[in-house]
Amino acid sequence: APEAHAKASHMASQQHALLEQKMIVGRLQSELETVRSQIVERDRHMERLANDATNVDNIDLPELQRRHRMLAAAYRADRRRLEVTEARMHEMRASLMTQETLHTAYTQLKNAHTQQARAMQRLQEQLRDGANTESRHRGDDD
User: Fold this and answer.
1) Is there a contact between 81 and 39 (Cβ–Cβ < 8 Å)?
2) Cα 19 to Cα 30: distance, rounded to the nearest angstrom
3) How many Cβ atoms are within 10 Å of 22's Cβ, its own excluded?
4) Looking at beta carbons, which pairs linking 112-119 to residues 24 or more positions away fall under 8 Å?
5) pLDDT tens figures, 31-85
6) pLDDT confidence of residue 49
7) What is the pLDDT of residue 15?
8) How far apart are CA 42 and CA 129, in angstroms?
9) N or C: which end of the chain has fewer CB within 10 A?
10) Does the pLDDT value for residue 135 go beyond 80?
11) What is residue 54's predicted lDDT score, i.e. its pLDDT?
């Protein structure tokens, strides 16, 4: 019984860890979607800037230099954002692998617990049958 209790406790902690991992993955997926939409909007903005920058007929040099700096800054910001997104993606993959490993371990533990419960039930039935047989033999001896 103490072993079954320990396994049940371990299984509960595995379930809790699995739920935590699912919540983390959900949050990271939500953040990834937000970043993706920000990137799309940023791309549109950069496209407008690029179109403006190529229309140089009526632009003086200082304005052209300003636009160039804005495009360069936008490019650097997008590059950093891409690096952060890639790092988060790696974290999500690792988290997902951990979640899958925990799920597999949980399933194995649940199966082992079921097998143990069946074995305990068989042993209890054998003990009960043995006790009944023994009491009948005592009755025959009297």
Assistant:
1) yes
2) 17
3) 15
4) 112/7, 113/4, 113/7, 113/8, 113/11, 116/3, 116/4, 116/7, 117/4
5) 889 988 988 988 888 888 777 666 666 778 888 888 889 889 989 998 998 899 8
6) 74
7) 86
8) 77
9) C
10) no
11) 65
Q: How far is CA 111 from the centre of its chain?
A: 23
- How many CA atoms within 13 Å lie on the side-chain side of 67? 18
pTM (whole model) above 0.90: no
User: How confident is the model over 90-114, as a mean pLDDT?
Assistant: 87
pLDDT at 8 over 90: no
Residue 106 tokens, joined: 């949980």
Roughly how many angstroms between the first and final C-alpha of the chain, as a whole number? 37
Exposure string of 109-126, with b = 16+ CB inside 10 Å and e = fewer, is beeeeeeeeeeeeeeeee
Instruction: In whole angstroms, give the CA distance from residue 31 to residue 25.
Output: 10
Predicted local distance difference test score (pLDDT) of residue 101? 87
Phi, psi of 57 (to 5 degrees): -60, -40
Chain mean position to CA 34: 18
